[in-house]
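Quick one:
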Amino acid sequence: MTLTTLRFSYRLILLSCIILFIIGGSLITAGLFVTRPVTPAKTIALQIKTGTSFNTIANHLETNGLITNARMFGLLARLRGETGAVQAGEYDFSQPATPGEILDRLIKGDVRRIQFTIPEGFTLRQIGERLAAQEIAPLDEFLTLAHDEQFRSSHNIQGDSLEGYLFPETYTARTGLSLTTLLESMLDQLDQNLTPELLEAAAEQGLNRHQFLTLASIIQKEAGNDDEMPLIAAVFLNRLKKKIRLQADPTVIYGLGDAYQGNITRAHLRQPTPYNTYTIPALPPGPIANPGQTALHATAFPADVQYLYFVARGDGTHIFSRTLKEHNQAVRRFQLHR
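Output:
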């Protein structure tokens, strides 16, 4: 063997050793990267917006000390075929986790969740204000979508807004959830509560779905307690059948909008608006609030009474009357002398 051949063989062996050393070192590094948990120095809140690239997400994770190598994290995701499966939202990281465990959370959408409650009788604006206060959605965006004609048409909603169609309930929403998806979940909740039994009973009262929600919203706002709702429903249904104006103060207040400052006047009762049931001989054009299950049930199954009038006692309850004479006596007793 010549000297040149020996030198070549030596170099080949040396190069092979270097390659093996690099490969071995890379495998060890990769193994440590995959198996070694990283403990955040503090709780990290990471916001991932819809459409954010995986490389950007990986760099954010490395910058915040949640992983040690963004490139290797990207390689791990590519090997698993999950670079495009990360879900948007706000993630909280506080516990030790391996890169694989972090990737699992991102794919699963294990985001921070927000719980909010919509009380029975809340108006559309009140719902929007609550969502804005909890930083779930800006008020103007909420109101814009709630009045959007295309969105309403796609959900077969009669009227000019979603008023009355957002079911009062306690909801749990993940951060990053789109406003459209959130409203659709509230609409779905209403559909689940508008059972065929309720809709059939409402139809027997002469009410279609929109009229049903409209009257239920008025009953929701008028009633001082749940027990009186079937009685109030009976009064309004009896008046509708006899073509007597409902004369419901809450509808007048709703129609006044920002002009109402807390005290209803005789001028307000005479002011013509589509919602002034002192001047229109029928239901207003749509709901004035979002009724709950009790109001819906009372509207579909009113009390079997012949009452046509009621007046507040001043303690949250009402006294009901069959005739105008009885009603005037009750007004003198509970309103004029109060």
